[in-house]
Amino acid sequence: MERVKFVNHKGKNILLLDFSNCSCEEVLRIIEESKKLIETQPEHSLLTLTNVEGAHFDSKVVEAMKDFTVHNKPYVRKGAVVGVTGLKRIIYDAVMRFSGRNLPSFDNIEEAKDYLVED
């Protein structure tokens, strides 16, 4: 299964960053793979949907997520996150504060996609 891919929703492309059910090592690998693709895109052009449902996090992943979120800022026009529950809420809040980004979290992928494509 591809973890970093474009999906079409209502005629618009969304970059899906799928960290769902990943180990810490997998999350770190997907971050690096994602960075390479994201930095090839025009500034302020991307709609991104990050799915962290069931993903595992440790201190190394949290630091990598902070760096990743800052790295992506120039390229992302609008972003959303799915799967922010329990302790991930604390990590999410810390990453948002650190990065100065506002990526709303949603309960499911369809709600997030709808948000991303609305003008």
Describe this structure in words.
This protein is an alpha/beta fold. The protein contains four helices and five strands. It has helices at 24-38, 59-72, 88-99, 109-117; strands at 4-9, 12-18, 46-51, 76-82, 105-106. Strands 1-2-3-4-5 form a five-stranded mixed sheet. Helix 1 links the parallel strand 2 (12-18) and strand 3 (46-51). The longest helix has 15 residues, at 24-38. The mean pLDDT is 94.
Task: Spell out the key features of this protein.
119 residues; alpha/beta; five-stranded mixed β-sheet; 4 helices; 5 strands; globular
**How would you spell out the order of helices and strands?**
EEHEHEHEH
Number of helices: 4
Q: Termini separation (Å)?
A: 30 Å
Beta-strand percent range: 15-25%
Structural class: alpha/beta
Mean pLDDT: 94
Low-confidence stretches: none
Strand order of the largest sheet: 1-2-3-4-5
The biggest beta sheet reads:
5 strands, mixed
Helix content: 40-55%
Number of strands: 5
Rg measurement, Å: 13 Å
* Shape type: globular
Summarize the structure.
Helix content is 42%, strand content 24%. It has 4 helices and 5 strands; from the N terminus they run ββαβαβαβα.
Strand and helix map with partners:
Elements: E1 4-9, E2 12-18, H1 24-38, E3 46-51, H2 59-72, E4 76-82, H3 88-99, E5 105-106, H4 109-117
Parallel strand pairs: 2-3, 3-4, 4-5
Antiparallel strand pairs: 1-2
Helix pairs in contact: 1-2, 2-3
